[in-house]
């Protein structure tokens, strides 16, 4: 947890920027306003600024292939049946650091498949080191124009979004609340111990 000065309030009071696992109870008890950085996606969604925010994230070289809080047009097309399972061939592989994060790797795969007499191509980007080599056959869910490439079926994606993600969020929320309560109780016990020691010293004098 860290704090920083904020000019958003009229009196330029301090604002705490806290992680989700910080003891929020202590901040509330002390009357310190705070913002949880992991919950910014909710604010972005409420302001309907998901598209612009996601474009800004992608422009900075950050992940644009993982599942985001706001669905990309390609993922929406995939969920609505706009992709078909196709057997593609990897024709080139490029592995490099993510922009601004030299310790993280992004791999781009150029894919090719046949659609009747037409030969079509698509680019599939994934976080992490390369998993396929040039010439490998890869069965993926691809839209006819190659704008959407997914590794899982629409049903699997629906199950993840409808069941897996909410369950994961609930679990994390429960763990955060439990940890916050434990840390708050520990802080109170420590304060009581210090106060008891102070009283003992005062009684001896």
Q: What is the secondary structure topology, with strand pairs?
A:
Layout: E1 2-5, E2 14-18, H1 24-29, E3 34-36, H2 40-46, H3 50-59, H4 73-79, E4 84-98, E5 101-115, E6 118-127, E7 137-142, E8 149-150, H5 154-204
Parallel strand pairs: 2-3
Antiparallel strand pairs: 1-2, 4-5, 4-7, 5-6, 7-8
What does this structure look like?
This protein is α+β, with helices and mostly antiparallel strands and 205 residues long. The protein folds into 3 domains: 1-48, no CATH class; 65-151; 152-205. Helix content is 40%, strand content 29%. The chain has a 5-stranded antiparallel β-sheet with strand order 6-5-4-7-8. A 3-stranded mixed β-sheet has the order 1-2-3. β4 (84-98) and β5 form a beta hairpin. The longest helix has 51 residues, at 154-204. The two termini are 39 Å apart. The relative contact order is 0.12.
């Amino acid at each position: 947890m860290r704090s920083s000065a904020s000019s958003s309030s009229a009196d330029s009071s301090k604002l705490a920027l806290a992680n989700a696992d910080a003891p929020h109870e202590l901040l509330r008890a002390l009357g310190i306003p705070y913002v949880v950085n992991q919950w910014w996606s909710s604010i972005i969604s409420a302001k309907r600024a998901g598209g612009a925010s996601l474009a800004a994230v992608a422009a900075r070289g950050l992940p644009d292939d993982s599942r985001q809080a706001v669905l990309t047009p390609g993922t929406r097309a995939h969920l609505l049946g706009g992709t078909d399972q196709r057997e593609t061939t990897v024709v080139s592989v490029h592995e490099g650091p993510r922009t601004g994060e030299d310790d993280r790797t992004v791999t781009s795969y150029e894919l090719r498949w046949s659609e009747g007499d037409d030969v079509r191509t698509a680019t599939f980007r994934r976080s992490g080191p390369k998993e396929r080599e040039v010439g490998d056959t890869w069965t993926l869910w691809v839209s006819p124009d190659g704008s959407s490439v997914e590794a899982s079926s629409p049903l699997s994606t629906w199950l993840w979004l409808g069941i897996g993600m909410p369950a994961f969020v609930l679990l994390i929320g429960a763990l955060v609340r439990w940890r916050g309560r434990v840390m708050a109780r520990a802080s109170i016990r420590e304060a009581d111990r210090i106060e008891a020691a102070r009283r003992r010293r005062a009684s001896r004098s």
